[in-house]
Batch of 3 targets.
Target 1
Amino acid sequence: MTGDTATNRQILLDHLPQGRLDESSFRAQEVARPEPGPGQVLVRTRYLSIDAANRAWMQGATYRDALAGGDVMAGGSLSEVVTSNDAVTLNEAGLVPGDIVESDHGWQEWAAVPAKRLTKVDVRGELSHHMSVLGVTGLTAYVGLLQIGRPVAGETVLVSAAAGAVGNVVVQLARIAGCKVIGVAGSPEKCAWLVDELGCDAAVSYREPSFFKALKAVCPDGVDVYFDNTGGTILGAALSLMNLGGRIVCCGVVSQYDTSNPEPGPRGVPGLIVTKRLRVEGFIVMDGWDDHPERCTEATDALADGSLKAFEDVVEGLDAAPGALVDLRAGGNVGKRLVHVS
Amino acid sequence: MTGDTATNRQILLDHLPQGRLDESSFRAQEVARPEPGPGQVLVRTRYLSIDAANRAWMQGATYRDALAGGDVMAGGSLSEVVTSNDAVTLNEAGLVPGDIVESDHGWQEWAAVPAKRLTKVDVRGELSHHMSVLGVTGLTAYVGLLQIGRPVAGETVLVSAAAGAVGNVVVQLARIAGCKVIGVAGSPEKCAWLVDELGCDAAVSYREPSFFKALKAVCPDGVDVYFDNTGGTILGAALSLMNLGGRIVCCGVVSQYDTSNPEPGPRGVPGLIVTKRLRVEGFIVMDGWDDHPERCTEATDALADGSLKAFEDVVEGLDAAPGALVDLRAGGNVGKRLVHVS
């Protein structure tokens, strides 16, 4: 830990964006470091998670309240327990100073958080891995692909935003499950990475003019499971390629987060869902929380033996967070994007 | 059986319709009564099933091949076994003259059908019931509502085309399951029938200018299961009203069968599917075929004790079939529409 410990630097959402998000929606401020009140714990932010969902929270209430101008920008963190209002609070929460916790206090260096809102992390190996394959990102891929998509060896799995935080883990899990895996990403460079580094059987850029034709060409047996991080055009293309009894895992809608007026859904809804007997299912990662410890053990073993890799894209310093989010929305990341705060 | 038994009157699909179907797409012809060839059985049509799906088959390949101009119009029938090419064929199929079978030979008085394509019907009570609550229509409601929708007592079930063949059975099954049931239909008269005769808690006409507002008002606790026979605007409204963890049963898309260019899907796809963690699932009735005998026994008992009612809308004579389908598309039926042929 370094730097001034008497002040708390924060990044605020200055105002809700209209259309495409840019850095002018944010501003920094410094306030006094908070003192923990009764039942609260003072924590110091180590890593912030930068996610497409950060943008979605600006659109309206989702599984959390909508953000408003003037709020500290919301986001998940890995933070370190510093102190509390009293020893009883720490004891009851099973925490000691130095413990690492997941905390939802947003883009700031310090926070005084009710102990019951902190989740202790059983750190194994690299701390940052608890924001990628060992954290919510990895669990999202696991719950979505294995519990909702339920791929069977030999089936074809299509993944959008395949080079992204969740997508790259989905690709790896689908390969481990013995599936043929097709990735969709936003540039030829990412597509090359998907095939060469991640082991996709093929990858197609959705920015290609002949995207649908190119995608169809690499899915000669159709698609059995489509892991949808995007919605929009890619979802429409996937619906056309789905096999009878196919499953579409609805994980996110990154194509629609930069607008307050989402475009209509694909033409195949609900016609193709009926005729192909598809299951189209949304989920959030909390639905699979009970499996998290077991899943972490599996993933730790897989990291150790090299069958699973953690792909992380770490940006340095709290002030870089707005740019890191804007660039993520433009497709700038490969793997899980994090901000290293302290 | 009456009438000329030497000729076979047929209704042909003269040409594929563009846009709204009318009777000019059909024409009648008379040909010689067919003689059953090896392995074939001569059957005489008793009842034809008139379904919204008849129109969908004109749009392209679904779970069956697309229809083409000049084809005998496709449709399911209850038919009577007359004779076969040889006794072995009947024996192997477990049939005797006079047996009732389900046959897919379309809109004609007679047909010579391969024995293996006939399904013997264990007739209980009224023959026509095997086309409504005891037949494919009833099984569709049963599989869709109970196996896909899985309503729990106390939940709210919303049903579109609720006065239709499948819809009226879904409403009855949802009430038996202890659910609050809201029906959507196309006229104030049908809505009154849904509440007064069928026992819906409320019913709303989708033709009302303030349809969404009216629907919302009668769903104060949201919607847990939406049984979708229509797609389009009603599906969009339902997506807005779905509760977390809700299920949308995709049974049909009657709003889109009169066009070769279906309209875009609702704006909430896939955004609301993600945030509300919905399951949106298509099925076809064949998926539940193994349950059919048991289901028939249950439904026969329920008909006998009055807890289930068969609502049928029978039109007289083969030549009335085109008009019966056109009028069904315009919302003319209440309950299951049949044509009585012989």
Target 2
Amino acid sequence: MTALPRKSVLLLSGGMDSTTLLWWMRDRGISEIHTVSIDYGQRHAVELESSASLSRLAGVNSHRCLEVDLRQIGGNPLTEIGRPVPAAEQERQTLTVVPFRNMLFITVAAAWAETWGCKDLFISPVRDDFQIYRDCRREFYDMLEKTLCLGATRQADYRIHTPFVEKWKDEIVSIGLNLGVPYAKTHTCYEGKRPACGRCDACVERINAFRANRTVDPLAYEIDVDWTTSRIV
Amino acid sequence: MTALPRKSVLLLSGGMDSTTLLWWMRDRGISEIHTVSIDYGQRHAVELESSASLSRLAGVNSHRCLEVDLRQIGGNPLTEIGRPVPAAEQERQTLTVVPFRNMLFITVAAAWAETWGCKDLFISPVRDDFQIYRDCRREFYDMLEKTLCLGATRQADYRIHTPFVEKWKDEIVSIGLNLGVPYAKTHTCYEGKRPACGRCDACVERINAFRANRTVDPLAYEIDVDWTTSRIV
């Protein structure tokens, strides 16, 4: 476990994992937290509203929305309106990959952070992610960290903190419930729906994480969810 | 010297170095060249026009303009209208650094390239650059290359080719003159002026590179340039 910084930037999507990380950082006593959300042309822009309101609720030092338009990259259903999001049962998560998304997000956040002298960046990949998404593995962040150090305007020790990278989503929920994370205000659904669709990959993962904790997710879903089952769908 | 790929993406700013690289790639027989220019909110947007017209002139397979708005990052005179560009004599190049600019450009180009299966990226840092710009050193590109390999959607061997990284600007001009690069159509001036200002750091470097080759730069300048002197200003 590395020492925690005084001054930090958190990539906050307003989802379950990054919001839990925000509450975790606050709990750990990081005195200065600046949240960044990325407007990448996502069709679920509701994510940006969640990020802003959760930042206010957490009382962060600043919240900033940075723009990296991934629609121009093309090829994935998270940004293309016409392309259907794969349901959890059928096509798996690789179809929802935006190439180098986390790398772009970290780099643009690092660029902004450099202008005011912050070198500590937090992001919330979890263990469930890195089974599929290669840019959610710590190995990748180690290399990205070294690249930032070499590419910075002046010699500097950039750190990319990923305290949840070895944790499963159900552990995240467990941590968050203990910290009082307002999960009803977070956002997950790939479809960008409120109430959440309850069927897409992201919703199903979330529902199962709450089920594993024998807890009802306070988020509104457009389907009836059976919270008593422990069956992982 | 590494083997050259068949299919490639070149980051083309339309300046002296990247344009020479385009002609060099063509000369080396790379059969498929796709140029990318980045609209980063530069005040010298004339660079984007140069890039497009030079791409046409070179007969590339495709030309694409990708957008990464660096104005939102702030803190540098290349994107901020109100901030004066430092004259060559006074403040040196560090003031014209946009944090992680090349890293963002390479990453967004790599993301686009991934969607159609290209893993070979060309960029044109030169030796004069890496005295000041840390993200122009090969050491940095080696690490960035490894990061791309680790972060790609699927296991892949990304290569960032920097064939000019050990060459000085006067060597670039020498190579380009031999290859018939249409230097009158390239663009350099930090001020974004046409005719070029002849006073900013970029102009002065360019003028000196032509002087070292005992050649007159065919580009139009708004000041009278003495091409006979070998004095480095």
Target 3
Amino acid sequence: MSEEREISVNLKDGSSYTICVAKGALATIGEKVAALKPCRTAMIVSDETVGPVYATLVKKRLEEAGYEVYDALVPSGETSKSVEIASELWQELAQRQLCRDDLLVAVGGGVVGDLAGFVAATYMRGIDFVQVPTTLLAMVDASIGGKTGVDLPCGKNLVGSFHQPIYTCADTRCLRTLTDEDWANGFGEIAKSSVVCSERSFYEWLRDHAEDLCAHDDQALEEVVARTAEFKAKVVEQDATESSGIRECLNYGHTLAHAIEAAAGYGEIGHGRAVAEGMRFAARLAVQVLETDTDFVAKQDALLDSLGLEELAWTCNPDRLLKLMKGDKKARGGAIRFVLPHDFTSWELVEVDDDLLMVHLSAWCEAKEKLVEAG
Amino acid sequence: MSEEREISVNLKDGSSYTICVAKGALATIGEKVAALKPCRTAMIVSDETVGPVYATLVKKRLEEAGYEVYDALVPSGETSKSVEIASELWQELAQRQLCRDDLLVAVGGGVVGDLAGFVAATYMRGIDFVQVPTTLLAMVDASIGGKTGVDLPCGKNLVGSFHQPIYTCADTRCLRTLTDEDWANGFGEIAKSSVVCSERSFYEWLRDHAEDLCAHDDQALEEVVARTAEFKAKVVEQDATESSGIRECLNYGHTLAHAIEAAAGYGEIGHGRAVAEGMRFAARLAVQVLETDTDFVAKQDALLDSLGLEELAWTCNPDRLLKLMKGDKKARGGAIRFVLPHDFTSWELVEVDDDLLMVHLSAWCEAKEKLVEAG
């Protein structure tokens, strides 16, 4: 195992936990968890893709540390974030007689973490859980912040809880099995974080190491996971339940991204690419609304390009995008709010009225159309 | 409306809310809630028994206060505390486009409060809710403490959250429609509270007013709801998430009660009568284990008798009761724990080994058998 980086997340309610980042970190998960939680039984929740590889390894380590370990595999993909699958897991926990002092371990990407975290948050009114994120996106974003939940047929993440893990183990060795789309999803959130992070050194580091990251260099990956996780942890520390506005910065690029993903049909355009596109759009909007320097826009474009997050060659009707933004739960009841950057490290939450937004959306759709035709 | 009693519940996380107790308190619920929560939309959840009466009244008051109000009625009875019904309510909230700033109002007994509270705790990771308990049991027990949840096929309350209401309105006028069983359920928890409450004056007041209560005297009812709610609120203030042992006293009488209810088949023997029987049993166990004075046992028996909670004429195999106690989630992994009284106001959590417990259970079953034969 490479040297571990430990990020401490200190929540306002007095609780805290550690995110461990290292290549090979899973080797010590048994002893780490046992030191935190001397319980008898653990249930691992994973999916059918990563379970046979990583859940099996985690199970072995926990058993060596003295746990009785059960595991449950759910189908891979977003459809597992459902009340029905949560219900099966609750029943599995009950049938295995896990009690309030026992442990749930989520091994997988964001879907598994959100689902298993929600099940842990609500089984017997809350049992402890450990996150083992296996995708880049989960390591830098989904596993941090305590947001857990499942989807309803009529909308994503409509049912859930805030529930923090007691330990998160990000083993960058798990990244070896990622698809190109998985990498793009991670890079999208990393790029976003580097722009809104209050320390400019994050952006500069990312700009200087984009090539290493695209080559999946071990050291660069560990560094970027640690930097991004630490950034998000700091934000979450200040606002664990999304009750102040501090967490808003995490939505940079997401207003348009959600609309693009919905318009294209979920899964058609990856989240990371949609976020990157949303960042390009928001930066241009900021030039008009906040008089942000066009130099910032160019730098951000270059950063996204260097991470392989090129402009989307996809378009749709601007009215449809506006309608989808209006339907987004964060936007209901008024003008649509955007996180708009002044520059790197400095942003503002701005309400943008529909007319102005339509001008920008129309221009965007037109530009996209040309890109599609050229494509 | 009679003079309101307001009980303030101050939780350790800094939040607080008010329980309002009065005959006719529902008359002002609209203005009270509007002062707390200037939102646009509220969803009332009630059941098919009380909904047509009380939910209709609450709806009217909220509409007068400026809310847009939807309502959802679930079937009456424990079977509505299911994941399936919760899922229907989540979808109803989503279809009505309620957002995180909106409000859910639970109008009914413990089943409705637990179910609707859980839905509120988890819809969009938690929206505010108001409790309008309409049974005596819900007013003095179920609506206080933030425990929300639903049942699984294999066990009660296995899925849930801790989620405190922002306001509770206990209108004793709602008690007029209660059944004898409903009264017994309330009196059981009231009697329990009076025994473990740290102030002896509660027991003495209850002893002196049992007759008035059985006659459903308005003033006595308001007083007992306020006293019992205040007692439970004080306990909950010290331990909102059941993480210290302070809340254990609330389980007085419940160890045997749960086993009796399960052995008889849920719904066959009311919760209040089962709790009263559990108190009688625990008091006798305390005489042996803690050398509790037999005078206490006699006084407690007299109190229960005076509240119409006579000894149960029902028996079963003692082995079965022991097995059910062992299966109770609170008892797993060792000797069974009982809240045992030294006297009024003073209790202790005691592990009772199986052999001693079987001696007492056998004696209890034998005594019950005679009662059944005599009956």
